[in-house]
Design brief:
By secondary structure, the protein is an alpha+beta fold. It contains 10 helices and 14 strands. The longest helix is centred in the N-terminal third of the chain and has 42 residues. 15% of the residues are buried.
Length: 464
Amino acid sequence: MPYFAKLLLLIFCLVVLVESRKHRRRRWTRQLEVQRASHIYKKNHDVTKTWKGKTEQLLRVDDHDFTMRPAFGGPAIPVGVDVQVESLDSISEVDMDFTMTLYLRHYWKDERLSFPSTTNKSMTFDGRLVKKIWVPDVFFVHSKRSFIHDTTTDNIMLRVFPDGHVLYSMRITVTAMCNMDFSRFPLDSQTCSLELESYAYTDEDLMLYWKNGNESLKTDEKISLSQFLIQKFHTTSRLAFYSSTGWYNRLYINFTLRRHIFFFLLQTYFPATLMVMLSWVSFWIDRRAVPARVSLGITTVLTMSTIITGVNASMPRVSYIKAVDIYLWVSFVFVFLSVLEYAAVNYLTTVQERKERKLRERFPCTCGIPHSKTMMLDGNYSESDANSLAGYTRNQMVPEEEKQEKMVVHLAMSNESNSSRKRGLKGHVGLRIIQNTHAIDKYSRLIFPGTYIFFNLIYWSVFS
C-alpha cells in the first residue's frame, strides 16, 4: 500500500513537470512573434497603412458637417479642374449634338479631412466614401444625357492627402448640344463646346478654374472621326449670369472640327455632275427620236430628285440654304432645262411641218424652179422686196385681189447666194433658228456645258 501511494505521487510530479515546460515554450514562442511583429511595425510605421480602426474615424467624418462647403462663411473655395478626353464618340448633324467620354478631375482643399501621417502619404478610396463628404457639384451645361461608368464598379476615385488636399476623379460619357451652322455644308467647319459649371454655388462660394491653364486639357492622340478632322482643342472660362441666382464660374472645352469632303464628292457631287452631263447627250440625238430623248430627260430629272431627297434626309430641317443645296438645285435646273429644250425643238418642228404641209396643199406645183423656196409676205412689204420680184411673169404671181392679204412668191435662187444674203442682214439669226430647228441643238451643245463649267468655277472658288 505505501508503495502504491509513492507511485501515484511520482506520476503526479512528472505530469506537473511536463505541463510547466509546455507553458514556458508557449510563452517563448509568443514573445518571439511579438518581437517580429514589432520589427515589421517599426519598418512600416504609418497610421495610413496600419490603422486598424474605421476610415471614418481616421478622417473624422462623423465629427464634421459635410453638407456645408469647406470654410463656410469665408472666402470662396478654389476648385481646380482638369480633363483628359478619352474619345470623341460621335457627331450628329440631325440632332445637333456630340458624344464625348472623358476623365473629369477636381482639386480642392478641405482641412476637415486632414489626418496625421509621418511619411506624408495619401489615402485612396473608391466611390463609397464620396457620399459621406463634401464634393463640388459640377454639372454639364446644355447636356442631353450623361452617366458615370459603373463596370465593374463605379469609376470614381477619391485621394486624400494628410494636409487635407483632395483629388476627386471620375470617368463620364456625356452627350451635349452643339450649335452648328450648315450654310457651307459639306465644306464647313464646326466649333463645339462642353461647358462645366457649379449648380448651387455662385462665384462668392466656389471659384471654378482650370488648374493648369491650357495644359489642363489632355487628349488621346488616337482620337479620330470618320467624317471630321479634329483641328484644335483649347480651354476658356468666363462668368455666366442668371437673373434669379447670380454669377457663376463656367469652364469651356472647345474643339474645332473640319468635315472631310471626299465622301460627299463620291456620294453627291460626282453623281449630280454626271446626271447633268448625261442630259446633254439628248442634244446629239435626232429630234425625230421622241422616245429616246424624252426617256433620257425624265430619267435624269428623277435621278436628280432622288439625290436631293437622299441628302436632305440626313440633315436637319434648317430654314436657310446650304452650299450643297445650291449645287444640287442648279444641277437640277440644268437637267430640267435640257428637257425644256427638247420640248421647244419638238414644238417648233411641229409648227414648221404644219406650215409646210399647208403650203403644199395650197400650191401643189412648183415645177421648173430649181431649189425653190417659199416666202410669206404680208401687205406691208418693202420696195426692196418688190424689186426682187423682177423677172417673174404675172402668171407666177398671186392675183391682184389677194395682194392686200398675202403674197406668195417663188424665188429661184441658188443655195449659196441665199445663205450669203442672209448672213449680211441683221436680225435674221432668230429667223434662221426658227426655220432650222437643228440650230437650237447646235447652240445648246455649247451654251449648256460652258455655263455649267462657269458655275462650277464660281462655286468651288467661293466655298472651298
